[in-house]
Structures are given as structure tokens and as C-alpha cells.
Write a structure and sequence with these properties.
Elements (H helix, E strand, L loop, with lengths): L2 E6 L5 E2 L7 E6 L6 H14 L3 E5 L9 E3 L5 E3 L2 H13 L2 E6 L26 H19 L1 H5 L2 E4 L13 H18 L4 E7 L2 E3 L27 E3 L2 H10 L6 E4 L4 E5 L5 E5 L4 H14 L7 E7 L13 H13 L6 E4 L31 H9 L5 E6 L2 E5 L6 E6 L17 H7 L5 E8 L6 E7 L6 H7 L8 H12 L2 E6 L6 E7 L4 E6 L5
Parallel strand pairs: 1-20, 3-4, 4-7, 7-8, 8-9, 9-12, 12-15, 15-16
Antiparallel strand pairs: 2-17, 5-6, 10-11, 13-14, 17-18, 18-19, 19-24, 20-23, 21-22, 21-24
Helix pairs in contact: 3-5, 8-9, 11-12
């Protein structure tokens, strides 16, 4: 089956917002103090245009924000937070502030999750929590100016429906949100606050909120076709109802629509289920309809974590299919959300400790050593699209840059043989490699007309041989660890997508008509100074 599109440079377009570039994730605040993290941030900001960064651990003990003195009074120290935020702002990105987890001296339980021992429990004193929120927000206003801080987002906690991240009842989270949003709005009503930042979507809404003290969600183990069920976001409807009943503001709604789900059944057993390849888009439509029908129809929607799976040891993340899935899910979700935040931009990431190998399946689109993975190019290519959508079909879209009038097209081949999101590859690389070998070439035909005669058009190709750093690593014998010289070569290979330049004909017509391999991504961009 051919992917075919025709677009005229002078056709009427519709506004296209780059929601895929709005926000990107990172592990925890303290990792932002490292040189590698900062270098990778500048790289993805320049290439992919990310505008916000979200991470855990803002109040963790390694940031030294909060401790109690011998007299029991709080001692506040914002120097480390200032360091991270200063460098982010200098790099051209803003914080998407996750308010969490509890500082050790304010936590009901300590070291409940992650290698670094996040204190995932409610604060022992909501009044002292509110004082902390007030103090740090006032500090930010003083340091960065009110107009700047108004441009940030403030998200209350992370995944409070999951036991390791919030050892408390749903009602306790709702109370935490209430005191947090009240404290921030008391400083300035235009500060943007939201939640509930829950994970994940569950079938038919089971365990999505009806049980007050259920800290995990469930699936129906006997269901024969989970994808045929109605998947609903956890707690969101109840959260909005609670806020409305208390007259609390909600500037944005957040949750985490991972298409691969680990859910507890009624007996405490885990079950893994990889959903259909269009699960992300279906979830966003569901969430959009829920918010539109709620008392908060003007609330923005921010999906503040998303990836093909929620595992930091899934080798799929290192492979080409991760990039194809990124492009597919984002193009199919145009108009449904304000952000779909890829988790995460770098493998400087220690939820489970350091990765044991260069390619260890980490979330990042850049390895610890600074080697770009294919997912990096997915976002770089998405960022090359224009701000007007001219035409779209399954597998491709053509856009126009309003300022220059030049066109950009992006296409992908997600093979029909794979009906699910990319299956996770957790116990090694074999599943990822088998999936990468699935599928047959597909013809791609994109015709652009109305261009300037003989204008220059650049074609970039991301596939198993081009821009695929792990293939280059295997070709050099999979060295572990690579030498300094090998690392330089891997970085070059990671950046080296296929690229060639062609010209439109004398009538201003350009035609791309070729077979492209499975999992490949093709960017066609008219040079802006030739239109």
C-alpha cells in the first residue's frame, strides 16, 4: 500500500502547534547539576526546540531545600535549585515544575521509591508544606520576575495513584493539591497550577478512582481483548469533581498515557499488556472529551510523561522503532493536547541506578556518553515541520512555514504487521531486534507543487543504517565500554542520517516516489531561502 500525498505551496492551511516540542522529561533535579545533563539539554533544545523540562526530586534531600534545625524550625536553602533553573533558562528552556516529593524532614515515610530514595509519602504537616511552596515560589518571583514565573507550570506531585510514589489515600492527594494550589494562587492568580499527574489509563475505568484507598490500578485478567475496552485516565474525573466542589482552580490537567501498562489485578499480581499502536491517540481523544465536558473546559492538557513503555530498562528505547512510534503517535495526535512530554531526553537518569552498558534501554534520546539515539532524530525532524498543516494522511503530513512559505513533509513506515505499540524488550535486545526486522518496504509518494522553479529540496532518511547509533556500535564489535575514540565515532554515527539534495523542476514541481524500508522516517524540507 502506497503512502501518497499531494500538496500545493499556495493552498489554504490550518494552524499547527508543535505540542511535541512543548515539554520533555528528565530524571531528577540533582542530575541537572551535571555537565553531561546540561550538554544534552542544550543539544535537544537546539535540535528539537523543547521549551520546558520536567523532572522529579525538586525537594529531595540531595537538593538541600528543606531541613529542620535543632529547634524544629525549617531551614530553607534554594542554592542548588537556583543553579539548575539558572542553567535551564540560559539554555532556553523553562521549568515545568513538579512539586514533589516530600523533603525527608517533612515526609511521613522515607525512601519509598527509586535508587536515590525518593520520599514518596504525604507531608506530615500540610501547613508546613504550604509554607515551603509559598517560600520557594516567592523566591522564584524575586529571582526571575513575576512575568517569567507566570510562564511556568506547577504540577502537584507525580503519579499519586501508585503506591511507591504516594503512600497515602486518594483523599490525601486531593487535600495536598488543595493546599498547594491555594498557596500558589495567593502569590499570584496567574500562576498556572494543575494535576493530578496520575499513571495510567485503565480499561473501562476499573480502579480509576472509585476505590478511595486503592493505590494501584487493575485490569480484568479474563478480558480477551483489552484493546476493545474503554480505557480511562486514572482519577482525572474524580479530581476535577473534587476541585469543582471546593471551588479550586485547575489551569491544566495532567496524566501519563504510556501505551504499555503494568497493572495489578485484584490479587496483587502484575500483568503486562502492550496496547494497540494508536492507543496514545485514543487516550488523548478520551481525555480531551472528558476535560471539554468538565467544569474546566478551558484547562490545558499536558501529558507530562510518555514513552513506548514506562521502563528505564527497555531496549526498544535504543532502537529505530522507538523513533517511528514517536513520529506516528505525535502526527496522529495533532490538535488533542498542549504537550506530550517524552520521558526523557537523556540517559543521565538514575531511577534504577546507572545503566550498566552504553545501550541499556534507558529512557533517554541521548546516551550517557552523548550519543544520539533514533528517538532524538524523531523530535529533530518533527521540529522541522512548519506552523501550518496543508494535508495529512496515515503515514505522512505536509506543512508550510508561514514566515517563509517553504514546505516541509514528514513520513514514516510503521509496518502493518505490528498492530501494537513497539513491544518492550526487557530481558535483552532480542525482542527489539526481532521487531526491527519485521515488515516489508512500502512505497512513499509525495508531490509538492507551487514551489519556486529549481528550488532546492533536502531529503533526510532515518532508517536501520542511517542515524541508528546502536547499529554502528554492533558494527564495531559492541565494545563495552567504548574507548574515547570509539565514542567519538558513535556520536558521529548517531548524528549521520541519510541526506541528499534535489531540485524542483522548471514548473516548481517536486516528486518523491520511492520504496522505503520498515520503521524508516523521511523528512522532505524545501530550503527556506529558495521559495
Amino acid at each position: 500500500m502506497t503512502i501518497s500525498l499531494h500538496a500545493d505551496a499556495h493552498a489554504t492551511g490550518t494552524e499547527l502547534t508543535h505540542f511535541w516540542s512543548a515539554c520533555v522529561g528528565a530524571g531528577r533535579a540533582a542530575e541537572g547539576l551535571r555537565a553531561g545533563w546540561q550538554e544534552h539539554l542544550r543539544l535537544v533544545r537546539d535540535a528539537a526546540g523543547f521549551r520546558y523540562v520536567r523532572f522529579h526530586g525538586l525537594f529531595h534531600d540531595d537538593m538541600f531545600v528543606y531541613r529542620k534545625g535543632a529547634d524544629g524550625q525549617p531551614i530553607l536553602n534554594f542554592q542548588y535549585v537556583d543553579d539548575v533553573f539558572d542553567r535551564m533558562l540560559q539554555a532556553g528552556v523553562r521549568p515545568f515544575v513538579e512539586l514533589g516529593f516530600s523533603p525527608g524532614d517533612l515526609a511521613r515515610e522515607k525512601a519509598t521509591t527509586f535508587w536515590w530514595g525518593a520520599h514518596g509519602s504525604p507531608p506530615t504537616d500540610l501547613g508546613q508544606w504550604a509554607e515551603l511552596i509559598t517560600a520557594i515560589a516567592e523566591h522564584w518571583v524575586h529571582r526571575y520576575g513575576l512575568d517569567e514565573v507566570r510562564s511556568w507550570y506547577f504540577e502537584v506531585w507525580n503519579e499519586p495513584n501508585l503506591n511507591p510514589f504516594f503512600r497515602g489515600a486518594r483523599s490525601e492527594y486531593f487535600d495536598l493539591y488543595a493546599v498547594s494550589v491555594t498557596a500558589l494562587k495567593a502569590i499570584d492568580a496567574q500562576l498556572r497550577v494543575g494535576g493530578p499527574a496520575t499513571s495510567n489509563f485503565v480499561p473501562d475505568g476499573r480502579f480509576a478512582g472509585e476505590h478511595e484507598d486503592t493505590s494501584q490500578h487493575a485490569v480484568v485478567a479474563e478480558a480477551k481483548d483489552l484493546d476493545s475496552l474503554d480505557w480511562q485516565p486514572v482519577w482525572v474525573a474524580d479530581f476535577l469533581e473534587f476541585c469543582h466542589s471546593r471551588s479550586l482552580p485547575v489551569d491544566f490537567v495532567s496524566c501519563h498515557p504510556y501505551p504499555t501498562d503494568w497493572a495489578l489485578d485484584g490479587h496483587g499480581n502484575t500483568q503486562q499488556h502492550t496496547r494497540a499502536s494508536d492507543a496514545t491517540t485514543r487516550d488523548l481523544r478520551t481525555l480531551r472529551a472528558l476535560v471539554d465536558a468538565s467544569p474546566y473546559p478551558d484547562a490545558e492538557i499536558h501529558l507530562t510523561e510518555w514513552n513506548s513503555s514506562p521502563s528505564p530498562r527497555d531496549h526498544t528505547h535504543d532502537h529505530l522503532q522507538a523513533a517511528t512510534f514517536v513520529v506516528k503517535a505525535n502526527l496522529e495526535s495533532i490538535g488533542l493536547t498542549e504537550s506530550l512530554c517524552y520521558w526523557a531526553f537523556t540517559d543521565v537518569f538514575e531511577e534504577g541506578g546507572a545503566g550498566d552498558t552504553v545501550f541499556h534501554g534507558g529512557f533517554g534520546m541521548i546516551t550517557y556518553q552523548g550519543v544520539p539515539k533514533p528517538s532524538f532524530h524523531a523530535y529533530r525532524m518533527l521540529n522541522q515541520l512548519g506552523d501550518e498543516l496543508l494535508i495529512q494522511t496515515e503515514g505522512a503530513a505536509v506543512t508550510r512555514h508561514r514566515a517563509s512559505g517553504s514546505l516541509s513533509a514528514l513520513a514514516y513506515h510503521y509496518p502493518a504487521e505490528v498492530t501494537q505499540a513497539p513491544p518492550g524488550s526487557f530481558d535483552g535486545r532480542s525482542v527489539a531486534q526481532d521487531v526491527l526486522a519485521t515488515g516489508s518496504p512500502r512505497r512513499l509518494r509525495i508531490e509538492l507543487t507551487g514551489l519556486s522553479p529549481r528550488s532546492s529540496v533536502t531529503i533526510e532518511t532515518l532508517d536501520a543504517e542511517q542515524g541508528n547509533a546502536i547499529a554502528a556500535w554492533h558494527a564495531m564489535g559492541a565494545p563495552e565500554p567504548p574507548t574515547r575514540e570509539q565514542t567519538v565515532l558513535l556520536r558521529k554515527a548517531g548524528h549521520a542520517v541519510g541526506q541528499r539534495v534535489q531540485l524542483a523542476d522548471d514548473e516548481g514541481r517536486f516528486l518523491f516516489d520511492e520504496e522505503i524500508p520498515s520503521w524508516s522516517v523521511v523528512l522532505i524540507r524545501q530550503d527556506r531561502d529558495t521559495q
